[in-house]
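Shapes recur. One chain:

:::
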Amino acid sequence: MTAVVRRDRSLWVQCACTALVALGAAYASYRHGREFALRFGADETTAAIWPLIVDGLLTTATVELWKTGHGGGRWKAWLAFVFGIVLSLCANVAAAPELSVFAVAVAACPPLALLLAVELLNHALKRRRAECANKTGTESNENSDESADVVRLAAISDDSLPPAEPTAEQRMWAYFRAQVARGRMPSGAELDRAAGTNNYGRRVLRQWHEEGRVSSTAAQLRQQSPPNCNTTLHRS
């Protein structure tokens, strides 16, 4: 998260610096472009409009460079941008007071600085778009993997699961019903031996008596027994 915030801040700094370079280049380009147009035959009105035409072309090409990907329209944006830079460079160099190296360097600095600033910002924006695309692709892959895991888990049937082991009380109850069906009432100690517990059968047997399960089970088994069989429960 810290790295992402740092990259966002650096991108905003680049945008702000490019805007400052563009404002400075626009100011210098307007002054030099107006003088250039007046020197080479333009009237006052045309000379005032000519720098705006060049700066407008540069602005449109810059925005198109930021928006365009690697498609066929990118070379058109670069052509318009380079053409505007050449016009601005000619106007700035022609406005130099003398044709010395330093005078030409000062005059050519604004358009060249704008060209380099726009290219650097364009690289930063492309890198940012690539990072966002990679992040989106990674998240989509993780979501698809999670969905596949859910599908695989849902495909497991209940038949493949091992049967649950009966509890101690369930084993006691099965033994109790078997003994009652044979005509005898098992004790708590017998229930402990059947379930493998210790001093638990008496409490369970007392609970069954309180709930009425013992009497109801005995009556049910007597009704299910044959008429000629005299089933009498006795406690061993």
Q: What stands out?
A: Residues 16 and 22 are 10 Å apart (CA to CA). Residues 1-42+103-131 form one domain. Strands lie at 184-185, 234-235. The two ends are 76 Å apart (CA to CA).
